[in-house]
Amino acid sequence: MIVGLTFAVLALALAWALWCAVSAVVGQAPTVRHRIGLLVLEAVALVVALVIVVGLVVEGGRTTGAVVEIVGYLVAVLAVLPIGAALAHGERTRYGSVVLAVAGVTLAVLALRTGQVWAVTGAR
Questions:
Q1: In angstroms, rounded to a whole number, what is the distance separating the alpha carbons of residues 3 and 110?
Q2: What number of CA atoms fall less than 13 Å from residue 115's CA on the CB side?
Q3: Does the N-terminal or the C-terminal CB of the chain have fewer CB atoms within 10 Å?
Q4: Which residues of the chain have pLDDT under 50?
Q5: What residue ranges are annotated as transmembrane (predicted)?
Q6: Spatial separation of the C-alpha atoms in residues 19 and 37, rounded to whole Å
Q7: Contact, 17 vs 104, CB < 8 A?
Q8: What's the Cα-to-Cα distance from 118 to each of 26, 59, 93, rounded to whole Å?
């Protein structure tokens, strides 16, 4: 279930990043709709992070190193979009859309890696 949720975040993040990249190509600065999409994506990532933390507590069976790695990825997952939003807010040209697209791709990679670590380090 957790791996499926992380793939859902991956798909949403890539779709949002593609939208931002297309906006950058056509010369459009980030709009309110881009930011609403960012907030929705952050909310989904937060829910998935909470589910993973509950899974870590309830399931157990992972080494300390695996837990630290998963938690580190979760912190990065929750931090990448606000950082991207802050940087894009300072750049009110089409390059702000580029920054948001990069943040979306970064979120997708982090979500993929979190799912991989979860699957590989699962309790046996």
A1: 12
A2: 19
A3: C
A4: 124
A5: 37-58, 70-89, 95-112
A6: 10
A7: yes
A8: 38, 11, 38
Q: Please identify which residue in the block is written with the tokens 């993973």.
A: 52
Q: Which of 107, 108, 103, 113 is nearest to 21 (CA)?
A: 103
46: which 2 tokens? 């937060």
pLDDT for 59:
83
Tokens 């991956």 belong to 10
14: its two tokens? 């890539």
**Residues 101 and 88 sit within 8 Å (Cβ to Cβ):** no
Amino acid, res. 81: L
Residue 42 one-letter amino acid: E
Residue in 80, 77, 91, 58 with CA at minimum distance from that of residue 5: 77
Distances (CA, A) of 55 to 9, 45, 71: 17, 15, 12
